[in-house]
Amino acid sequence: MLEKICNWIVGKMRKSIPMDDEKAEVILYGIQLIIGEIPKIFLLFVLSFILGIGWYVLFAFLVIMPYRATTGGFHLKSHLGCILGTSLFYYGNVYLSKFLNMDMITKYIVIFSLFIFGIIMVTLYAPADTENLPILSKKERKMKKILSYIFLTLTLIAAVLITDNVLSNIIIIGVFLQTLFITRIAYKLTNNKYGYEAYQE
Hints:
Layout: H1 2-16, H2 21-50, H3 54-71, H4 79-99, H5 104-125, H6 138-161, H7 165-180, H8 184-189, H9 195-200
Helix pairs in contact: 1-2, 2-3, 2-4, 3-4, 3-6, 3-7, 4-7, 5-6, 5-7, 6-7
């Protein structure tokens, strides 16, 4: 059903916008990702509220989303794997944040170290695209890299300013994990390739 809807949308687009089969395939994959995200996000939040951590998961989702959207990262190969991976990312973050307790000096050192690590990884890898959804435009890549720096900085400033220990920890852990997701090691472990590199081969 999902495939039919996505094919219908791309078919309509091809009638009004000239595109070759390769570009149409990339657009099709992108639409499948977007539409496929809807039930995944719905399930994520419904289950989180059942587990009693809904507001924490919502906070994590909204705060980390700008950084995730601009830095990119690997994609798991199946919808089930994607659902499990996303759930583990948010639920694991929230539960770990509840048990993690750092004094202020330690927290500042961790945030500063994470900022340096993030700057290096963003410089090397962001925006981290995939073969099925490559970012080939130099202008788009430059813009997303700049936004990655901005959102990394603003998100970590929020972690410093927020006094609630759990919320601050959610930001720190979320930024750390998302930064790991764009690295070459993460791509190798998940059998992914950076899209722009694949298209340059």
